């Protein structure tokens, strides 16, 4: 089965946000920036909660605005408690995950479990595909320094996105918390249909790990696909105070990542 189709009028811009990670302070700043620019359509590429102090507020903010969200690897971690056949907890993660789950409650976890793996948006006679980490699954990511073959794989039809999924003209993905843009030109023999295609990553709203400043992307252009990458400074001190007051586990790791963008080297 191919990804769900999301129809957006051709002349209208689309904001692509990702990896909000329970940081309502950053999400509020980014949504205000999107509103200020008059962009009406938003898609979120997964990892709604996990890591930060405000999982409910973050999830509810996305849901109350009917922002289509895609399923991420942290969403998968959080919903393991719903599935009797689920994977075991990752070592060292149990208390942090249980704290997030206790905040969210069953109804919100079930909403996370209902999120689609990928969305396709018709544009310019083709499709822009949005997914979390890769076309393989939510855990197999494409990192900045990976060989070009890995970027081409984002365009492949696979069991995860559907064996009959058409090749898109652009792919946007999240997960690595780093802004990235690639034009695929060098090795068209790997996937000729993807020649000249665009890969982009909007970085992370709630847990940016390149700069400690939230980022997102806007897709626009009426004749050809154009992409803007935007940074939104926000009140990091307020977010750190919220984290301290929340009683969340792994507080120190979160404060360091929030203040510096230096990754804790656990799972992304
Ligand atoms: Fe993430």
Overall mean confidence score, pLDDT: 92
The unique ligands bound to this protein are: fe (ii) ion
Helix count equals 7
Strands in their spatial order, largest beta sheet: 1-4-5-6-8-7
Strand and helix order = EEHEHHHEEHEEEEEHH
- The fraction of residues in strands falls at 15-25%
Helix content: 25-40%
What is the CA-CA span between the terminal residues? 28 Å
What is the name of the CATH architecture? 4-Layer Sandwich
* CATH superfamily placement: Metallo-dependent phosphatases
Number of domain modules: 1
Question: Spans of 5+ residues with little confidence (pLDDT < 50)?
Answer: none
Biggest beta sheet summary? 6 strands, mixed
What shape does the CA trace take?
globular
Structural class: alpha/beta
**Secondary structure tally: strands:** 10
Rg from Cα: 18 Å
| CATH topology title | Purple Acid Phosphatase, chain A, domain 2
Query: For this structure, what is the CATH class?
Result: Alpha Beta
Question: What does the secondary structure layout of this molecule look like, with pairings?
Answer:
Elements: E1 4-5, E2 14-17, H1 24-36, E3 41-44, H2 55-64, H3 73-79, H4 94-113, E4 118-123, E5 126-131, H5 148-153, E6 170-173, E7 179-183, E8 198-202, E9 215-220, E10 226-231, H6 236-246, H7 251-260
Parallel strand pairs: 1-4, 2-3, 5-6, 6-8
Antiparallel strand pairs: 2-9, 4-5, 7-8, 9-10
Helix pairs in contact: 3-4, 6-7
Bound molecules: fe (ii) ion.
Fe (ii) ion (FE2) binds at residues 19, 21, 47, 72, 74, 175, 177, 268.
């Amino acid at each position: 089965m191919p990804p769900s189709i999301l129809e957006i009028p051709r002349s209208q811009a689309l904001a692509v946000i990702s990896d909000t990670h329970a940081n309502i302070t950053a999400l509020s700043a980014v949504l205000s920036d999107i509103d200020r620019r008059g962009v009406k359509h938003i898609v979120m590429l997964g990892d709604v909660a996990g890591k930060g102090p405000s999982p409910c507020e973050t999830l509810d903010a996305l849901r109350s605005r009917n922002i289509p969200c895609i399923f991420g690897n942290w969403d998968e971690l959080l919903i393991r408690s719903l599935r009797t056949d689920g994977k075991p907890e990752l070592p060292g993660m149990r208390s942090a995950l249980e704290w997030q789950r206790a905040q969210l409650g069953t109804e919100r976890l079930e909403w996370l479990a209902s999120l689609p793996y990928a969305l396709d948006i018709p544009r310019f006679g083709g499709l822009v595909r949005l997914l979390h980490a890769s076309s393989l699954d939510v855990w197999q990511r494409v990192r900045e320094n990976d060989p070009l073959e890995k970027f081409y794989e984002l365009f492949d039809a696979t069991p995860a996105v559907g064996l009959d999924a058409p090749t898109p003209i652009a792919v946007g993905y999240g997960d690595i918390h780093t802004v990235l843009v690639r034009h695929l030109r060098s090795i068209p023999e790997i996937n000729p249909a993807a020649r000249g295609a665009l890969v982009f990553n909007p970085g992370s709203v709630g847990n940016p790990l390149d700069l400690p400043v939230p980022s997102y992307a806007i897709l626009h252009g009426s004749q050809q696909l154009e992409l803007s990458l935007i940074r939104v400074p926000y009140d990091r001190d307020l977010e750190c105070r919220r984290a301290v007051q929340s009683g969340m586990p792994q507080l120190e790791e979160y404060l360091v990542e929030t203040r510096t963008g230096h990754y804790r080297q656990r799972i992304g």
